[in-house]
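Hey,
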Amino acid sequence: MGMIKYLICLCAFLGLHLDQATAQQDTSRAYEWNGRMVKYVKITKGQTLYSLSREAKTPQDSLIAINPELVNGLKTGMIVRIPLGFVEKPKGTIKRTSSLEHTVKTGETAFSIGKKYGLSSEELFQQNPDARNGLKVGTVLTINPKSGGKIPEKAEQQINKEGEPDKVESTTPAAAEIDQSRCTDKKKGDARSLKLAFLLPFFASGDEVNAKSKIGLEFYSGCKIALDSLKKAGFNINARIFDTQSDSSAISKIIEKSDFKESELIIGPLYASDFKTVSSFANKEGIPIVSPFSQSDALLENSPNAVKITPDQKTLLEELSRFLLKDKKAATFTLIRNSNAKDQDAANWISEVFKNEGNLADGRFKEVVFSGVNEILSNLNESTENILIFPTSVQVQVIDAIAKLSSNRLGKRITLVGLNEWNGYENIEFDHLNNLNFTYAAPTKPDFTSPASKSFQRKFRDEFKGEPTNYAFQGFDATLFFVDALTRFEKPTLSCLETMALACGINSCYNFVRNGKENGLENRYVNILQLNDFVAKKLN
């Protein structure tokens, strides 16, 4: 299928997949929230995201978009928003009591300009509707500041500095410090161009897209929004899309294509088995290749051009342990060991950090073999905070343990540390986890409230008539980061990523470390989250 026809098919499918009927308005319980009309409902025991979606006649993605905490599942008793529609904006021209003009300069954004005049990005767009399509250098904006026409004092001082350009903080995730001795930025004015290849499982056949393509489509929908933004910012990106179909023979044919061999950056494939094949080719050709989702460190072995965005379980637990040691200096730690091999590995990683880096010779760290909750409760210290670390993946054990710990916590100060995967257990009681200050490490943390996130969501709704999923956010962040990072230098190279400081997008943060001289780069950034009032709040 031709590329244009394929993209039409892709976008059409996304539209059909995401554009669902909105819940009927209930005016007796309607409230305005972030430009939308919503109603509030309380989650009852046994409700799932699927059942809530059916009852509200609203797609699950839309529910998650305005209730970020639902990413971790429904919790009994939590209050969630149900979208009813967008707030009607008053028609006609906005009245300006006192206006002035602002000429857009290089590097300025709607956020930075609005901040000068005490306006939000949305208020700036209301006053200058054409600016929604992108800010171009030299464009003259008519602005009515909140201060009644007077420029805020700090902004006035900044504007009056003749010959000194405004210093605007970049909103691009890749805006990080570069070691100039190793990586040289392109000369000012050089075109930022890149030949980019996406290898994703669309399972396309003729004019149809298979239902199995859901993850690939959602990921690419975010990539497409990022590519559009980069194009408006002056980047010259030649992006090619290849359907892996998660099939080795299809991938072999892709590798042989002449246009694929010309790629300067490859994103995908999504699955580990497919990635290794393409990674071998990429290393021979010297092409950087990015794995968006796979956690396995095996992807990086003898593959110096490979990058793994998602930290593995070992990295997650080690970074979580280091955070606890630093943040809980007065607490008592108990590592609860299990007997199965997988859980033993997890406990060993945690134990090694506490013993080698904790300096806890005063008995504040101890290890016990799990034999029941009663024994654990009898050893708790009521005068200090008790950090119980239970890195088990045995679902029945987890559900039973948190129920007993929660019901026996009076007079005890307990924080339960577990695994991110617990959030996906169907029968888990989140009110118990909430009582126990459930703390865990996760690769990503969706942000639905920042100006950048709201801008992305608005663009996504305009193009796909629905709400972006977590995969879409990840696609947006990854594309924006790697294109910007690799086009900053004379030749796309991963060595420069190692010198970059921590960089964060909407959903993901990046801090790359090479796992050995001949191996690839792993993202070592970890989100430390704690369940508080049924919302997963970031601690680090």
